[in-house]
Amino acid sequence: MKKIQLVIILFLGAAASQKAYSQNNASPYSIIGIGDIENSYFDRSSGMANSGTAISSSRYLYQSNPASYSSLDDHFFHVDVAARFKAVTYSGQPISSTTSNQSTDLQFKKITTAIKLKKWWGISVGLLPFSTANYSFYAAKPIQGTSITANAYNEGSGSTNQLYIANSFKINKNLSFGIQSAYLFGQLQQKETLMTTITDSLLTTTSNIFLSNLYFKSGLQYHTKISPALSVSAGLTGSLQTKLRANTTLLVTSGNTTLVNNQEFKNDYFTLPVVYSGGLAATLHDKYTFSADYNFQSWSDLKYAGTGYVLTNSSRYSAGFEYSNKLRLRDQSFEKYFFQAGLFYSDSYLKINGQQLNDLGGTIGAGFTPLRNPKLAVQGALEIGKRGTTSNGLVKENYTQFTISVTYIDFWFKQKKFYD
Amino acid sequence: MFRKIASYTFIPAFILCTISACQKVDINFNNEYSSNDYTQIVKVDSFAADISTVYIDSFPTSAKGVTLIGGYSDPYMGRIDAKTYFEIGAPLTTASNFTKAIYDSLYLTFKLNKTYYGDTTKPVHIDISQLSELIIPPSIFGNIGPNLYNTNHFAVYPTPLGSTDLVVRPNLTDSIHIRLSDVLGDTLFAKIQRGDLDVTNGTNFLNFFNGLCVSSNANSALVFGCKDSMGLKLAYHFPSLYKDSATVSFPLSNTTHHFTNITVNRNGTPLQNLGPANASGKQNIISSKLTNNMAFTQPASGAMIKIRFPSIQSLLNLPNYVKLLRAQLIIRPVANTYSTFYYLTPNLRLTTTNIANQMGTDLSINTGTTSTVQNGGLTVDYLRGNSSYVYDVTSYLNLILNNPISAYQQDGLLLTPPSNAYETQFTRTIIGDKYNTLQQNQIELDVYYVAVQQK
After folding, report:
1. Bigger pLDDT: B445 or B368?
2. Are residues B75 and B196 in the same domain?
3. φ, ψ for residue B315, nearest 5 deg
4. How many CB pairs under 8 A join A and B?
5. Do residues B126 and B41 both lie within one domain?
6. Nearest chain B alpha carbon to A19
7. Are B32 and B85 part of one and the same domain?
8. b/e per residue, A187-212, with b = 16+ CB within 10 A?
9. Do A105 and B43 touch (CB under 8 A)?
10. What does the pLDDT look like over A380-414, one tens digit per residue?
11. Do B34 and B83 reside in the same domain of the chain?
């Protein structure tokens, strides 16, 4: 019962923390689409450049592939929470010399739980970020019919998140299948504040786009031992094209006076593309793990385009290495700590002014399990990368982010047995 | 166990959430990507501002503190002449003081108030005439009314007491003196020496001397203003080695009977048909379309401009219209109708009016807690003729937008100088309508409104 209480409290805490999403880093590119789509899983693969499609664990939750949960230890209850600190330095022609070019934030990112209900069936429930938007800028807005402009302050904020339940089934000794059913929901707010001498009061336009729909992701994982020292695995995941309902409300105020309050301003869709990922991993002596992932998002089919930009097919390549130090007692092993490193490169789905934005970076990670309290594991990952370019009037983001996640594992429902 | 879980997972997570720090930065890499373009500020200047010239039947000119003298011929407004009527009071004298005194002269003194209109290079003819009847204000419901009007006039003796022709330089000349008839001077002096009741009792004096009229003739090309501190001065002296001169003053006695009569002859001008509605061949309002796309304001001569916005209600039907933000009325005097002689009215107010063309409320502008009547903030360009008055008519347009029958009521705005200048100055402004051949003369209504995309 206390565990149920715990889960409820943690989810409430996570829900409350959604407010913190509005404090996320300024990301000028998040003005397009549904914001910056999250590439991180905030799990153990974070230190391996998120190359976790082919990896599973008896101890850790890998969010990349829903098939991975069937590898968890039987009758254990898992809880993961993660937070991330991110600092971004911006450069490029739009960056004014008079304003700061740095932004930082610290955010709660996820909470997930999992349990192995049967030997062949693992289940996970959690709340994960899907995308975030946060931008703000001053611009001169033309007053139609004149050559003069009004000062406009534009702000965008919000996020989409997925509340998921994933079922993972062991089909045979080597093959697992999983499906993640998520309720994807969120709110993106755009606010424009017009300041002009034409009017004494501020003219504020706030549109809220409420996005929601079910979103499915399926996965396969295959594990086999090539030799007593070497085991290899492969993983595949995929999501079908999904239409998100996008209901927009509009509120226009002049000072304290409401001019327009339209709760049914627009009912539209935002379509998420076909996404698939493939990964390979190899583990040597149960110590050294190499992993590589490829992810593809088919945005071009959706034909999203606007002035100067188009959403285009996106590919992400990543590879990681892990060294794990394990303590062995007879047939049991206990991981004391691990170190990780990874590299990634992606051509993002944003093509602006003819330039497809890319994202390049590296990660290092480490984690440990306290000997005194083996139910707990702590891991951290540092990621350093750059996104975008300074050419074609664009902005380059040099970012550093540190993810810390805490995993707790315990038995689930230790039922007393009575012997007559 | 629960406590342990909480301490290891939830509490650190909670701390992370609550201490989350954020440093934001404003970056505009291309504002065109913002899809929040639902609200626009739009300016339109296509709404008509219809203008016309309205006839002013009469208006009080008494007790304004101004004596108007002269007349001038205006190519647009016609021949305008001003006569000022006033009463003078008995002097404060004691007969015994004048036993040995010798009369010298009688003259009338005016102190200029620096207002003028017309050609200051030409002499002004001035006649001072004695009234042959008492100044009695027109009756209202059988009782003597409080005011005297621009249309009132009183009989004078045919021969003026004095006349002069002089060049008035309003900015240099401090005061002018006009010598009057010595016959009257002798008579008055004799009455003073005798201690006659005619000069010691106010009522008797008024009956003896009904008052004065200051007038000009058709040759005058200037109207100028004087203060109401004028009065008769009788100069005398006592015979002695050193001439011992002194004066007796007959001051203006009753300011409410001090008024200006104004006559206008508009024959041969665009406004020749302007007049009382009940007069044959006259109209009390003439559209600018009938007066060469111009309208005229000079209330002292009985003309003022009415501005109407008959189509403004269609603003409400413009696509996505939500709110009127600001409306600015730019009134442009017609180039070449004004000069340094016929200068533009420095201050012109806008006053609400209706079908009866009665004056309502002056348009004001609020600055903080104070409300100030708008005077147009005239910018003058004598060289190129790009002069203008500018008004914020937002409040007024909001008023008539909320009154669907405003157009039927012929609501509008009257363009006139502020009170007192309205009645006592002849500065005039001629403005162009929207169809005036020169754009620099055209009236313009700039309307800024908020448009919000509806779907």
Report:
1. B445
2. yes
3. -55, -35
4. 203
5. no
6. B17
7. no
8. bbbbbbbbbbebbeeebbbbbbbbbe
9. no
10. 999 999 999 888 888 899 999 999 999 998 887 65
11. no
CA distance to partner chain A, nearest, from residue B416 (Å): 26
CB B309 within 8 A of CB B45: no
Among the candidates B257, B275, B301, a domain finishes at B257
- Quick count: other Cβ atoms within 10 Å of Cβ A387? 21
Q: Name chain B contacts of A13, Cβ cutoff 8 Å.
A: 10, 13-14, 17
Q: Residue B128: inside a domain, yes or no?
A: yes
3-class DSSP assignment, residue B42: strand
Query: C-alpha distances in angstroms, B234 versus A305, B127, B175, B193, B198?
Result: 96, 18, 17, 13, 16
Residue of chain B with shortest Cα separation from A255: B325
Taking residues B132-153, what's their average pLDDT?
93
**With contact defined as beta carbons under 8 Å apart, do A178 and A123 qualify?**
no
User: With the C-alpha atoms ordered A223, A226, A227, A231, is the resulting torsion angle positive or negative?
Assistant: negative
| Chain A nearest C-alpha distance from B6 (Å) | 7
> Contact B124/B69 with Cβ under 8 angstroms?
yes
Mean pLDDT of B367-372: 86
| N-terminal to C-terminal alpha carbon distance within chain B | 55
Q: Is residue B60 part of a domain?
A: no
Distance, in angstroms, between A191 CA and closest chain B CA?
7
Domain count within chain B: 2
For every residue of A252-297, DSSP letters joined together read EEETTEEEEEEEEEEEEEEEEPPEEEEEEEEEETTTEEEEEEEEEE
Partners of A350 in the beta sheet?
A: A311
* Same domain membership, residue B312 and residue B432: yes
pLDDT of A20 reads: 40
Mutual orientation of helices A2-17 and B11-18 as an angle, nearest 10°? Answer: 10
pLDDT (0 to 100) of residue A100: 67
User: Which residues are CB-neighbours of B9 under 8 A, at least 6 positions away?
Assistant: A10, A79, A81, A406, A408
Q: Which of A4, A5, A6, A109 to mutate to test the interface with B (most CBs of B within 10 A)?
A: A6
Closest by alpha carbon to B348, among B365, B331, B326?
A: B331
Amino acid identity, position B227: K
Please name the member of B9, B450, B452 whose beta carbon is closest to the beta carbon of A406. Answer: B9
Nearest to A48 by CA among A321, A399, A325, A339: A321
Measured CA to CA, the distance from residue B447 to residue B45 in angstroms comes to 6
Task: Give the Cβ contact number of residue A347 at 10 Å.
Answer: 16
Of B18, B12, B4, B5, nearest in space to A79 by CA: B5
Residues of chain A with pLDDT under 50: 1, 4, 7-12, 14-23
CB contact under 8 A, A143 and B13: no
pLDDT of residue B244: 72
B132 & B95 share domain: yes
Closest CA to B129 of B213, B36, B27: B213
| Torsion region of A145: left, alpha or beta (phi above 0 gives left; psi -120 to 50 gives alpha) | left
Partners of residue B85 on adjacent β-strands: B213, B259
**Phi, psi dihedrals of residue B184, rounded to the nearest 5°:** -65, -40
Helix (H, G, I), strand (E, B) or coil at B33: helix
* Tens-place pLDDT, residues B1-10: 444 544 454 4
Closest CB from B13, B29, B448 relative to A108: B13
Average pLDDT over residues B253-260: 93
Q: Which residue range forms the structural domain that includes residue B144?
A: 66-257
Using alpha carbons, list the distances in angstroms from residue A37 to A132, A247, B174, B385, B394. 7, 20, 84, 62, 47
Query: How far apart (Å, rounded) are the C-alpha atoms in residues B58 and B275?
Result: 11
> Letter for the amino acid at A335?
E
Nearest-neighbour CA in chain A from B316: distance (Å):
14
Clarify whether residues B70 and B40 are in a common domain.
no
**Assigned domain for B263 exists:** no
